[in-house]
C-alpha cells in the first residue's frame, strides 16, 4: 500500500483505464499486440483515447477531442487510478449517462478539493502537503493545467490543453490528491519512492489486520510536512 498516490507510479490498472470504454460503452478499438498500443474511438468519432506503453517521450495515455480541439496527456508515472477517472468520465461528457450511478464524477471545485486533501492554494497553483507535487493553472497558455512532480520535472504527470472540460481535470485531481492509498508491487515503485522517506509504503502481506486499515493507522502517526 502506497500513499501519497503521486509517489506510487502508474501501477497496473490498465483495464480500469480502457476496459469500461470498450466493454460497457462499446467504443471502437484497435490493438497492436506486439507493442501494446491501443486506440479507442467514441461512437461519434469526436474523441480518441491513445494508449501507448512504448511512447518515446514517456506519454502513456492521450485523450484528444476534435472540434473543439483539446488534449489531455498522462505520463508513465501518472497513477492509473487518476487516469481512469478521466477516461471513464468521457461517455458522460458526450451525453451517454449509462452506468453513471457507478461512475461518479466530482463537481467540487479544484480549490475545495485541494483544501479537502490538505493541499495549499496560492493563485493558480495547488501544492501538495509535502511540496513534491503541484497543479498549476495558466489560463493564458496553450497548456492550461499542468501537474508536476519534483522528481519528474522533465515529464509532467499530466497536462490539459486550453479548452479541456474542467470536470476532467477535477476528476483527475480528486483521484491524485486523495490520501487513500493504492496497491503496487514493490518492484513497480519509482526509485525515488523506494529510496526517499516522503512516501508511506506498508506491506499487504504479513499484517495482522486489513492492510488498508494498517496503512491508514500508520498515516496518523506521520507528521504533516510543510516548509
TrEMBL record:
Top-rank lineage group of the source organism: Bacteria
Domain DUF317 per the UniProt entry, residue ranges: 127-179
UniProt-recorded name of the protein: DUF317 domain-containing protein
Annotated organism of origin: Streptomyces bathyalis
Amino acid at each position: 500500500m502506497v500513499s501519497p498516490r503521486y509517489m506510487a507510479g502508474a501501477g497496473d490498472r490498465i483495464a480500469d483505464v480502457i476496459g469500461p470504454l470498450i466493454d460497457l460503452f462499446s467504443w471502437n478499438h484497435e490493438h497492436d499486440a506486439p507493442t501494446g498500443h491501443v486506440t479507442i474511438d467514441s461512437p461519434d468519432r469526436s474523441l480518441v483515447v491513445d494508449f501507448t506503453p512504448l511512447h518515446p517521450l514517456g506519454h502513456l495515455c492521450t485523450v484528444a477531442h476534435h472540434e473543439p480541439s483539446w488534449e489531455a496527456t498522462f505520463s508513465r508515472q501518472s497513477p492509473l487510478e487518476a487516469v481512469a477517472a478521466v477516461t471513464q468520465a468521457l461517455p458522460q461528457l458526450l451525453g451517454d449517462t449509462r452506468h453513471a450511478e457507478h461512475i461518479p464524477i466530482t463537481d467540487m471545485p479544484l480549490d475545495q478539493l485541494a483544501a479537502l486533501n490538505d493541499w495549499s492554494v496560492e493563485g493558480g497553483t495547488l501544492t501538495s502537503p509535502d511540496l513534491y507535487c503541484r497543479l498549476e493553472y495558466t489560463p493564458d497558455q496553450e497548456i492550461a493545467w499542468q501537474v508536476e512532480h519534483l522528481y519528474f520535472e522533465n515529464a509532467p504527470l499530466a497536462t490539459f490543453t486550453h479548452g479541456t472540460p474542467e470536470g476532467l481535470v477535477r476528476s483527475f485531481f480528486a483521484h491524485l490528491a486523495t490520501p487513500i492509498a493504492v496497491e503496487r508491487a514493490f518492484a513497480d515503485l519509482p526509485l525515488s519512492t523506494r529510496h526517499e522517506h516522503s512516501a508511506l509504503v506498508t506491506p499487504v502481506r504479513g499484517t495482522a489486520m486489513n492492510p488498508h486499515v494498517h496503512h491508514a493507522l500508520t498515516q496518523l502517526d506521520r507528521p504533516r510536512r510543510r516548509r
